[in-house]
Amino acid sequence: MVFPFRSVQDFQIEIPDEVEIFRKSVRELVEQKIMPRWQEIEKTNEIPKEIFKEMGELGLFGVGIPEEYDGQGGGQLMTAILTEEVARAIPSLGVAIGVNHLFGIPILLFGSEELKKKYIPPIARGEAFGAHANTEPVAGSDVAGIQSKAKKVNDHYVINARKVFISGAGKANYFVVSARTEPPKADKRWWGITVFVVEKDWPGVNVGQQFKVIGMRGEQPYEVILEDVKVPAENVVGKVNEGFKIVVTTYDYTRIGIAAQAVGIAQASFEKALNYALQRETFNKPIVTHEMIIDKIANMYIRLEAARLLTYWAATLADKGRKEFVIAASLAKAFATETAEWIARQAIQVHGGYGVDTEMGVERYLRDAIITTIYEGTNEIQRLTIVRQLVRQAFGLRI
Ligand SMILES: Cc1cc2nc3c(=O)[nH]c(=O)nc-3n(C[C@H](O)[C@H](O)[C@H](O)COP(=O)(O)OP(=O)(O)OC[C@H]3O[C@@H](n4cnc5c(N)ncnc54)[C@H](O)[C@@H]3O)c2cc1C
Fold first, then answer.
1. Counting atoms of ligand 1 from 1, which one is nearest the CA of 99?
2. Ligand 1 pocket check: which of 105, 129, 141 to mutate, most ligand atoms within 8 Å of Cβ?
3. From CA 108, how far away is CA 123, in angstroms rounded?
4. What domains are there in the chain, each with its CATH number?
5. Residues 6+ apart with CB under 8 A from 105
6. Using one digit for the tens of pLDDT, what is the confidence trace for 134-167?
7. Average pLDDT over all residues of the chain
């Protein structure tokens, strides 16, 4: 049964040779230069600038961006592999990659040629960073509930906005910002939201407090406040009043990246647990030979590979331009993030007391994994999307 897909062939995952070559080169960089710095990043809550510089020079911020905008090309699959490999070492570095895409995807999919030419190349070259400012104190899951305002005045807009939990805002040069240009219509709550590109150094743009969230140290989110910020009309992304579609379509793509972050976290937790289980002895034998530990390791591995397959599958469907990628992306995001949380928890248990020692670097994966179940659409919202998409694709019904 392939419902709601067309044929069993829809389950093919196509991974070209160059993706594997790319994966190996990313892993080499990660293991040599990034992984050894995890303790420093946990302690300082900052990713060293040299890491970004080196990634930029290697073109890694251009992965998933067309060559005509100075990117490296490659699609969702390539981006997912990059994210997974990086997150296996430092999950918050996966966030830094994801945040650039949260900025770039709405412009690449909906923006004018001028916006693409102006804002995408510096991001692709690693010379600038973007961020995505949608969530507000009163509205996260409910994107249509945002209250920030943008008023048209002659040839520009004046934006007043308060945004919360904005990842990457500290180092971002540019933001995409959503704001209401008109009130919602009675039968269309989503109507009236517009998306803008705003530069950080424009008067009235302020990065506020940093949120002290439990994980993803190195890339924790900020409050962003816009007070009477004058934005030229040409910085509107897509159509005025139709920004809701832009925001939610962006998340359809970027949540594949969250699934990939989760696969990286799950992979790292699994590797650590297996290595430890082979080395640690109790009752005169390695704990990997105790039945209950065998059961844990086997179940961790089963779920890890299932999460990876769902993620690569969603990315493959997106790269093929298949609209069913939306449901696959939600399946992957929900499953991979819950898998990462579960595997990270099991990894702590396998390590016994050392598992909860912060110097071991195991418990951090659980703190990071929990965050992946929340952003870019909580897993409750993923389940809502899954059932809505399923019913729409299978029966043509909107619920
Ligand atoms: C570390 C971190 C980084 C983030 N980075 C960004 C960023 O860069 N840019 C940005 O714009 N936002 C960002 N966010 C915000 C994030 O996307 C929101 O927190 C998330 O979408 C949930 O919104 P909320 O916090 O307002 O929760 P709410 O929407 O208030 O939800 C509260 C609870 O109710 C549930 N719920 C809500 N509606 C429904 C429903 N219809 N059915 C069932 N359950 C429902 C939710 O699943 C959740 O469990 C970030 C958040 C975190 C924690």
1. 8
2. 141
3. 12
4. 8-129 (1.10.540.10), 131-241 (2.40.110.10), 245-395 (1.20.140.10)
5. 250, 253, 254
6. 999 999 999 999 999 999 999 999 999 999 999 9
7. 96
Both tokens of 368, joined, read 């990071």
Q: What angle do CA 328, 332, 337 make, to 5 degrees?
A: 160
Half-sphere exposure (CA, 13 Å, Cβ side) for 42? Answer: 19
Closest listed residue to residue 46, CA positions, set 238, 217, 248, 187: 217
Q: Could you tell me which residues come within 8 angstroms of residue 187 by beta carbon, excluding any fewer than 6 positions away?
A: none
Read off the pLDDT of residues 80-96 as tens digits, 9 standing for 90 and up. Answer: 999 999 999 999 999 99
Q: Please write the tens of the pLDDT for every residue from 346-355.
A: 999 999 999 9
Q: Does ligand 1 come within 6 angstroms of the Cβ of 210?
A: no
- 219 annotated active-site: no
What pTM did the predictor assign? 0.97
Place of tokens 């966030």: 95
192 lines ligand 1 (CB under 6 A): no
